[in-house]
Amino acid sequence: MNLDAMKILQYDKVQADLERFAISYLGKQHIREMTPLTEMKVIRHRLDETSEASVLLRAGASIPIPSLDGIEPVQQLLGTGYVLTERDFMHVQQFLRSCRQLIRYMATKSEMAPTIASYASSMYELPSLLSEIERCIYNGRVVDGASKELAKVRKKITVSEERIKRKLDSLLNRHRSIMQESLISKRNGRYVLPIKKEHRKLIKGIVLDESASGQTVYIEPSDVASLQHELSFLHTEEALEETKVLSELTELAEKYSYELKLNTDTVGQYDFIIARGKYALSIGGRNVKLNDQGVISFKQAIHPLVGPGMVPVDFAIGESYNSLIITGPNTGGKTLTLRTVGLLTMMVQSGLLIPVQENSQCSIYEQISVDIGDGQSIEHALSTFSAHIKNVNHILQTADDKTLILLDEMASGTDPGEGIGLSIAVLEELHRRRATVIVTTHFTEIKNFARVTPGFENARMEFDTETLEPKYRLKIGEAGESYALVIAEKLGIPAAIISRSREISEAGVGHENTIFSKVPSSANDENNRDAHPDQASSVPLHVSKPDRLDEGNPVKTAHSIEQVEGNAHKPNPQAFALGDSVYVSSLNRTGIVCELQDSRGMVGVMIQKQKIKINHKRLKLHISGKDLYPDDYDLDIVFETKENRKKRKLMSRKHVEGLTIETKPDH
Predict the structure, then answer these.
(1) Between these two residues, 346 and 421, which has the higher pLDDT value?
(2) Which end of the chain is more exposed for a tag (fewer CB within 10 A), N or C?
(3) Cα angle, residue 363 at apex, residues 360 and 364 outer, rounded to 5°
(4) Which residues of 128-143 are buried (b: 16+ CB within 10 A; e: fewer)?
């Protein structure tokens, strides 16, 4: 599975939430290593395990998962020659008791949870090992009855300690007057008397220590020293016997190392399964039907990291269409829908129940590829568009009918004309490969493409045009819009501008019936509204079909947007001539030279019916006038209004009282 896609869809956060429900190191390890699977039988089995666990938990059962505290080091030490300690065996003892409890518990749940209950039948109670540990060790200490030799030694130790105590009591009574305090102390594990320093010579023995003030010395009386030597010897013998007992227990445990390992692994699996069940209850997870035909049908789906505050999504794909184009306003839930579908699919393939309603189904994919967010890399200084292209290129290298592809904001980050064309071409190729594709976009052209192309379908995120708030509901079968004009109108933009915006949007920017024929050079210039259809102020900025000739326009050759951009940065080899099409870099527009360069280097350029003086250094030749117009073409048709041309023609023949020609001042 694609690791980048898992990260983008926040699969790791689901793992972190799931891990909180595990109690053992093995259960947590299984969760950290969890990844979406691709074999349907294995996934079905995992989902059924999780479902059974949730059934047990929902019934109020407290499943006795054994603790694995201290078991990991025991497993590692068995067979190495190391003798396990009393503490190690206490962990083994508790583990075996818990395993016995789990085995007996699961035996009673075979009807309610037959799959996971069966796992306990493969576990071992190991009664002989457990009983031997219980016989030999209690409360972290080897008991007297662990061996006959140990019992004998400890009896001798008891007798020796009693003799020492009696001897010390006698010395205490005899030397009480010269003692700093009437008690018996210990230094380095040996009994001593606290004698005042000035009386030290009155006691026969060895000084083992003295106080910080130097006023007290701690003397081991000679009468006690021999008894204490004997006691030390007995303690050494005791430790030897305890080691023998622990060695025998270790040897017995090693005989059952396989069974212990199997029990440990089974408990780890149980912990993993029960954690999945607990997580399912926490997010309202349900089981789903599976298929490998690219069919997804999520009813009332919720993103697990968003929770119940999210408006549920009804989502479907794969029956009559396998490519879905989602449109709608910004912050309307398009991207969240992508993330929800992608993450829930990964969760299903990981054996997790997902927050959907009953009878939902999910397809199994071998690959889930994602391009969500700008993906920008600061280190490599990639632009947003470059990052998108890099992701799309990677997707194209691997996409097939077993791939789920999620693409956010197609055609963004570059010129809309080229971006739309590239996006549609990519969508066509992905459809040809029968991949399951879910796309979000703002562009009408992509929506229109989906509307008329078999295998594609539109969907929209609903929006309340009265409150200007998204409803976050997905409606499949209808194309949406960004609602920019609705929002602008609600926020007070004049109605005339909104109306004009709709005209431009519907006709398309650069269309002959919008910008270049309808935008007047001033608010009260009615003449321009009656301009001759042959009149042109510049070459259209975007020509959707490069080989199309504009009807009624004396342009010899039509040029695509690629030609516009390609020529826009060519050097300026000579002075501009009237009729030349030039690119104005500062305005990102093309225009027609209407006045030759003056002494100050300024050139008159007509852009959208307005004449502007621009320094020649800011102009680049786009298309030579010789290539645009016939040799005998009257450029006044381009630069003059129809009415002014009529007036000029009339004035050339005779004088007309009161007849004037008005021209708009240059900017």
Answers:
(1) 346
(2) C
(3) 135
(4) ebbebbeebbbeeebb
Residue labelled with tokens 């005339």: 496
Model confidence, pTM: 0.69
Task: Give the Cα separation of 618 and 589 in Å (integer).
Answer: 12
94 exposure class (CB count in 10 Å sphere: 0-12, 13-18, 19+): middle
Query: What average pLDDT is seen over the chain?
Result: 81
Gap between the Cα atoms of 48 and 114, Å rounded: 10
Give 66-80 pLDDT, tens digit per residue. 989 999 999 999 999
CB proximity list for 363: less than 8 A, separation 6 or greater? 290, 291, 292, 293, 294, 295, 296, 318, 345, 404, 436
489 to each of 331, 493, 503, 512, how far by Cα in Å? Answer: 19, 5, 15, 26
- Distance CA(578)–CA(611), nearest Å, equals 13
| Cα separation, 123 vs 664, whole angstroms | 96
Residue-wise over 455-481: b if at least 16 C-beta within 10 A, else e?
A: ebbbbbbbbeeeeeebebbbbeeebbb
- How far is residue 223's CA from residue 200's CA, in Å, rounded to a whole number? 15
The lowest-confidence range among 80-84, 282-286, 656-660 is: 656-660
**What percent of the chain stands above pLDDT 70?**
77
Angstrom distance (rounded) from CA 374 to CA 383: 8
Cα separation, 428 vs 433, whole angstroms:
9
Q: Round the CA-based radius of gyration of the chain to a whole number and report it.
A: 44
Distance CA 491, CA 485 (A): 10
